[in-house]
Amino acid sequence: MAAERTVDAFTAAALRESRAPAAGVLLAIDPGTDESGWALIDIATRRPISFGKTENNEFRRILQNDEQFRRLRVVAIEMIAAYGMAVGQEVFETCVWIGRFMEVLNAVEPGRAIQRIKRKPVVTYHCRSPKAKDGNVARALVERFAPGAKNYGKGTKAAPGWFYGFKKDVWQAYALAVFTADMIDWEGAQSA
């Protein structure tokens, strides 16, 4: 998977490549039972800096041990919500991973801003409908950041687009990151 950057490099890449200081970088996590999608973005531009889908134990280890990760101040993690339907074992296992990630993030940097955000507000924000599906969210992101671009704004290896290398859970992590960054800007404007 050449297009996907490795998790070991994601914090180093963020600190080297981002025009914003570490406080201006946001990590969003779309947790899963075995693997989690993640996206690191520049809050000011919303540009993806680094992203991927990584096995949970490895991702937790990186969150726990990467010294450069301490400089990141804002983390958003998708939270499970009850919508009145029965759920299976996968949902409960995902809840366990949310707790594990939060435990590590709090231990690494006490007082870090960790936002637990449910999926429906993110979907509704991007698509104006709580019933939108993953494909609708991806299309809304393309329309916002790569309007008119072919191939979902991915481009090619020779000419990478805004979303080059994105797939499945990365789209959802990126949607969460953009939503969180937009809310930070909105709240800041409201309090000014």
From TrEMBL:
Name of this protein: Uncharacterized protein
Organism: Yimella lutea
